[in-house]
Design brief:
Layout: E1 3-7, E2 14-18, E3 23-27, H1 30-36, E4 41-46, E5 50-55, E6 60-64, E7 71-75, E8 81-82, E9 84-86, E10 91-95, E11 109-111
Parallel strand pairs: 3-11
Antiparallel strand pairs: 1-2, 2-5, 3-4, 4-10, 6-7, 7-8, 9-10
């Protein structure tokens, strides 16, 4: 069985995922852009994998936008996005950037493209650097 480990930026929260991911979506909706402060959220989904908090479970906060199904988990110390169990325990959602191990699955789809940011066009044409700008 596949195992992945992950953590938050400050290291207070450490977790392990056991099982496989069925899908990997890059969501461009306005809610996911607000959640991440970026062009899109990058979330892995599984209906069968399990989540085990090794340390810091008490530092995990869950926010659900009222009157929606939009939910996110994060570390109360550093704000890093963290996995969440949703749909009454049926769905595990894991922010790809929260994992410390490599994953085999590639993004399945860009979703909610009709709602994407106006500046999120042809980003592959933007000059790329291997490190920070000088």
């Amino acid at each position: 069985m596949t195992k992945h480990s992950g953590s938050c930026l400050c290291g207070k929260v450490v977790f392990e995922i056991t099982g496989d991911f069925e899908s990997f979506y890059l969501c461009h909706c306005s809610r996911c852009r607000k959640d991440t402060g970026s062009a899109h959220a990058s979330n892995l989904f599984s209906m069968s994998a399990t989540l085990n908090w090794h340390t810091g479970a008490e530092a995990v906060k869950i926010f659900t936008l009222p009157e929606t199904r939009h939910s996110r988990s994060f570390c109360i110390t550093c704000g890093s996005a963290l996995p969440s169990v949703q749909m009454s325990g049926k769905l595990l959602v894991v922010p790809a950037g929260s994992l410390d191990t490599d994953i085999e699955i590639k993004p399945s789809f860009h979703i909610s493209m009709a709602d994407k940011a106006q500046w999120d066009d042809e980003l592959e044409k933007t000059p790329m650097l291997t490190g920070l700008p000088s």
